Amino acid sequence: MTMRLSVISIALAAFTAKAAAQADTCLSCRQALPAAAVQASADTAHGGSVLTRYDRRVHRYRRRWQSLIPTQSVVQFAGNMGLLSVGVGWEYGRRKQWETHLLFGFLPKAQSDRAKTTMTLKENYIPWSLYINNGWAVEPLTVGLYLNTVFGPEFWQKQPARYPDSYYPFLSTKMRVNVFVGQRVELTLPSNRRKFVKSITAFYELSTCDLYIRALVQDSHVRLTDIFGLSLGLKFQIF
Q1: Cα–Cα dist 213/229, whole Å
Q2: I need a surface site. Which of 24, 73, 111, 236 has the fewest CB within 10 A?
Q3: Full-model pTM
């Protein structure tokens, strides 16, 4: 009899602890609530399990700010955005098939007077990903669009007066519009071996820009293979 009562007491204690944990959890984001929020919910809602309007507003506010935290870091070589570019990225979509990258690149001095810095805003789309085994996956197609600018007085947004009218129609040297197509290989690290990143992706891209496309259309000597350039890169998925 004593043992039966002990078992019943333990079961009741476990049920009570579980109910308390659920009451202290946000129903919208499944995160533990601060003590003040829990007390407010208990004081204004039946059973202490429904959040108040204020609590929901706070959690929406936190989620929106958390969405601004980058989830990726990127290193890219060439691609009409500098000799070497580094930056951060965000992924979203139902299948995480969309990515936005913000990169800053470096152009060496070469034949110009000084080295230059570039900035690129890039949008990627990955239609599908094919899992192989042991954490390896292939993304057989990636496409995207990106805008690139070079910082410096040598590049202009509006055509200077020294050029004849419509010499550079609708184009400038300050901003380039690029398109690309490429492929990727991804390795997802095992949970027990992760320290700084969740996965590593190697990729290549074939890209061109509006200026090269214009040359292809206007100059019969320019071939399709002349307007595309190769770039290589690595993407590190942080979480």
Answers
A1: 12
A2: 111
A3: 0.72
